[in-house]
Amino acid sequence: MVVSMGFKVMDIDGDGLVTKEEHAAYFYSMNVPVEESKKIFDVMDTNKDGFISIDEYAHAYAEFLFTEDPNNEYNGFFGPLVD
To answer: Which residues form a coiled coil (predicted)?
Structure first.
């Protein structure tokens, strides 16, 4: 449920896919530098179709939550980590 709610917040037009523009708008709304959006979007878009699907979002969210690797590529899920 948390995953689907988070995805719906990003999916502004409700078409079931998050575009680069929608993802950048989400980061902007959270006061995260939009340049960071491009970095994590490219990581999350695992099939490289230019969109983030709910499955790609769920995978990225799980990686972010459950990794213990400080270098995990999904650590930027909500923007850069701070010390």
So the answer is: none
Q: How confident is the model at residue 83 (pLDDT cuts 50, 70, 90)?
A: low
**Could you list the residue range(s) of the whole structural domain that residue 27 is in?**
2-67
Residue 16 lies in a domain: yes
Q: Are 18 and 7 in contact (CB under 8 A)?
A: yes
| 60 closest CA partner among 14, 29, 25, 18 | 18
4-33: pLDDT as tens digits = 999 999 999 999 999 999 999 999 999 999
pTM of the model: 0.90
Per the domain annotation, does 83 fall within a domain? no
